[in-house]
Amino acid sequence: MKQFDTHRIFNINNADDFEEVALDIFKFQYENNEVYRDFCIHLRKSPKNVSSSLEIPFLPISFFKTHKVTSTQKEPETIFTSSGTTQSTTSKHFVPDIELYEKSFLKAFELFYGMPKDFCILALLPSYLEREGSSLIYMVNSLIEKSGHPHSGFYLHNLEELHQKLKILESKGAKTLLIGVSFALLDLVEQFPSTLTNTIVMETGGMKGRRKELIREELHQILEKGLGVEHIHSEYGMTELLSQGYSKGNGIFETPPWMKIVTRDTEDPLSIQPNGKTGGVNVIDLANLYSCSFIATQDLGKTHPNGTFEVLGRFDDSDIRGCNLMVL
């Protein structure tokens, strides 16, 4: 199998670079990913008749539950799995080159927030810590290690200890990142309301069946009031992706240069919609080199002309699973 130069993925500087790399990765995955190639053939699409990234077929995300979606014969170094429920099948993302994932999440974090070593990173992710195979735990654990701060670490259900830690860090004026799953952050504000002035609070979504679902605005209002912060940040990622989008408030997400969001018509899944119109979220994640870089998610959202996007909910018929978004 011909190797793909992964350096190209993280050296995209403009729209033309993105287009060129996206089309080359489409060709690479068409040639090396049997599941994706069969899907493309079914749609009568191939590198011969695709000349734009928007013409590339987007593989339904459910294929990660039913097929081994891989573009290499190399054995996986790790397998990321979705949380799922007892009734649902979990997604499996076979990752043959973990360095590609590390490079993706570190470069994106540095792009939007700076160096991890500048933060004390506190992670409140109980539902993820309680199972194996979480790509989010892998990412946050790496950020905590790179932070190197003596107080950085994970918290399971010890909210009082976390609260006391936040008070100490605030008293010292330490630059802090608190990253948490929605239901656990709500537990924290109910039991230990605070006023945080040096802390970025980032939710990764998901009630995981522990609480009733809230729309994002309602969730963020409760957290902003309970933690005394002006904005709640958000992370948009999922098991099937190796890249993340970030929002620094108001639910407006940005992506790194190797990731792009477009929306599809909910009535016609093969047609791409203009900016500002609500539709199904399609993700181009060029870091997904060895699985599939072109994925049709079960999220609803809309894009903006400047490349940002919003997540507005989920398709009604999709099962609720470990993907960080909330149901309308």
From TrEMBL:
Pfam families: LuxE (PF04443). Residues 18-86 form the Acyl-protein synthetase LuxE domain. Keywords: Transferase. This is Acyl transferase. InterPro entries: LuxE. It comes from Flagellimonas aurea. GO terms for molecular function: transferase activity. It comes from the Bacteria.
